[in-house]
Structures are given as structure tokens and as C-alpha cells.
Write a structure and sequence with these properties.
The chain is 46% helix and 15% strand. The chain has a single domain, classed as Rossmann fold. It has 263 residues and is of the alpha/beta class. The radius of gyration is 17 Å and the shape is globular. Helix 1 runs parallel beside helix 2 and helix 1 packs across helix 9. Strands 3-2-1-4-5-6-7 form a 7-stranded parallel sheet, sandwiched between helices. Bound molecules: nicotinamide-adenine-dinucleotide (NAD). The site of nicotinamide-adenine-dinucleotide (NAD) has 29 residues, from helix 1, strand 2, helix 4 and strand 5.
Length: 263
């Protein structure tokens, strides 16, 4: 039977794909026939290791080691990787974080933070999306057929998280950015959508998920009473990247165990 989620002949770039959600997206894409997966991370070891996993599944894995907050380097690395791959059809802006994983349980309140902390949150979560999208667009616009950008955002951007005020703002801004871009790029046949996540079991949030009290409180708000897994997110992103969603653009899809209905 035909695989309606096939990515045969497509080249994809995933930012922050060295672990967690991004890594699973890279593996899903490879498993669905994506010809080349460009694996970005600022940790070289992680980018190379996931690129090797992608290659083991039959796709070509290209590591792209760069910090997404560094515009000039991102322009150079993305251009180089897309040239090596011979085009670019899919971009997943996944790199992001709420804060240092070992301190997520103990972040300072907004009134004790200042421009240095704000810059860190906005850097990866907002400017990273701008930088990688800007760098990817020349190759995406020059490529043919259905093309898709998926931004990974957070329900924090919708409901607001008291301990993550600037992160919430960055993710809400990315949702708006995606809607504007969808309209700007529709004529070029490039679609733009977002997936909005609640808690997903990844190394980035492991300290939070290791706290049983925190998890118990959180699960009371989820209709499906479990934490999400990277596969739950990768399934939705695969759909939005594939031609099965070719008439869908400018939208935000929650992947959150029903949290959006409870809130
Ligand atoms: N895990 C969750 O509960 C959750 C919830 C809501 C939203 N999200 C969002 O999902 C996305 C993926 O999260 P995750 O939990 O898989 O994260 P993670 O921390 O487990 O993995 C993120 C990867 O991105 C890389 N990275 C971080 N900053 C980077 C930068 N500036 N340049 C290049 N690489 C960088 C890291 O090295 C890491 O390998 C993020 O955008 C995050 O905000 C996650």
C-alpha cells in the first residue's frame, strides 16, 4: 500500500535534532524515505550521532553543527548543507529550551531577571527560528514541489507559565511569526504550521519529570493521563511535513494529551 506520509525525494533540515523531539523527528523522516536529513545541533557529537542513525535507516544524514542564535554562521552552514543535499523541502524549527535542564525546577521569578536572561530565552526560542528560516528560504524557494516549515512551540505560549514568562512570550511570538510567514510564502507554495506541545519526555526536561509531585499536578490537567513521548510529536510533524497535509497552512496544532481542552 502507498505510504501517504512518504517523504521520498525530499530533503529536510531539523534544528536542535541531537536529542529529544528533534532526534525522533529525524528518525521518523528517515523511516518514511526522506532522501536527506540535515541534523542540526550545537553539540557536534549529538549532531553526528543522529546523522549516523539517520544513515543507518537508509537516508543520507548530514550533520550541521551550529548554534542557531549565530546568524552569520547559520547562513553559512545551512547554505553549505542544502548545496550538498541538492535542495531543501522541509524545515523543522525545533531547537529551543525553557532553561538549563538541571535548573528548570528552580528558575528565578521574572522580577529577578534582566536583559542577559531575556536574551538567552529569546535567542534560541525566537531568534533561532528567524535565523534558520531566513537561512533556509533561498534553498527552499529554489526547490520544487510541496514544501513545508514546521515550528515547534509550546502551550506555555498560549496559557502562559508563571516561571517561564519570557519563554512563553518567545513561543507565542513564534506562533504569530508562523502565521505571517504562511501568508508571505503561500504564493511560493511553501506551507508554514506550528505544533504546540505540553510536557514531552525528553532529556531537556528530565529534572522536571523526575519530580513525582510536579508530574502528578500536571497530569490532572491532561485528558490522556500520561506525559507525551517524542514519537507523539514526530507523528504530527511527519504529517505536516508530508504531502498528506498539502492544503494545510498557517495553523497551530496542539500535541498535548488534551491539555488545551482542560485549560
Ligand atoms: N520537552 C517538553 O516538555 C517541551 C514542551 C513544550 C515545548 N517543547 C519544545 O520542543 C522543542 C524540543 O524540545 P526537547 O525537549 O526535545 O529539547 P532537548 O533539550 O531535549 O533537546 C534540544 C536539542 O537542541 C539543541 N539546541 C539547543 N539550543 C540550541 C541552539 N541554540 N543551537 C543549536 N542546537 C541547540 C540541544 O543541544 C539539544 O540537543 C523545543 O523547541 C522546546 O521548547 C518541549
Amino acid at each position: 500500500m502507498e505510504d501517504i506520509l512518504s517523504l521520498k525525494g525530499k530533503v529536510a533540515l531539523i534544528s536542535g535534532a541531537g536529542q529529544g523531539v528533534g532526534r525522533q523527528v529525524a528518525l521518523h523522516f528517515a523511516a518514511h524515505g526522506c532522501s536527506t536529513v540535515i541534523v542540526n545541533d550545537f553539540f557536534e557529537k549529538r549532531a553526528r550521532s543522529v546523522a549516523d542513525e539517520v544513515s543507518a535507516l537508509g537516508s543520507k544524514g548530514i550533520p550541521a553543527v551550529v548554534d542557531v542564535t549565530d546568524f552569520d554562521s547559520v547562513m553559512k552552514v545551512v547554505d553549505g548543507a542544502a548545496s550538498e543535499a541538492g535542495g531543501l523541502h522541509i524545515l523543522v524549527n525545533n531547537a529551543g529550551n525553557a532553561g538549563p535542564s538541571d535548573k528548570l525546577d528552580d528558575l528565578p521569578p521574572f522580577w529577578e531577571t534582566g536583559p542577559d536572561e531575556w536574551q538567552r530565552w529569546l535567542g534560541t526560542n525566537l531568534y533561532g527560528v528567524l535565523n534558520v528560516t531566513r537561512a533556509a528560504l533561498p534553498a527552499m524557494m529554489a526547490s520544487q514541489g510541496d514544501r513545508s516549515i514546521v515550528n515547534v512551540i509550546s502551550d506555555a505560549g498560549r496559557v502562559g507559565e508563571p516561571g517561564l514568562v519570557v519563554y512563553s512570550g518567545a513561543k507565542a511570538a513564534t506562533a504569530g511569526l508562523g502565521r505571517g510567514l504562511a501568508k508571505a510564502l503561500g504564493a511560493h507554495k511553501i506551507r508554514v504550521n506550528s505544533v504546540s506541545l505540553a510536557s514531552i519526555n525528553t532529556p531537556g526536561v528530565s529534572t522536571m519529570l523526575d519530580n513525582p509531585e510536579h508530574v502528578k499536578k500536571m497530569l490532572r490537567q491532561y485528558i490522556i493521563r500520561r506525559v507525551g513521548e517524542p514519537q507523539d510529536v514526530a507523528n504530527m510533524i511527519l504529517f505536516l511535513a508530508s504531502e498528506a497535509s498539502s492544503w494545510i497552512s498557517g495553523q497551530t496544532y496542539p500535541v498535548n494529551g488534551g491539555y488545551s481542552v482542560s485549560q
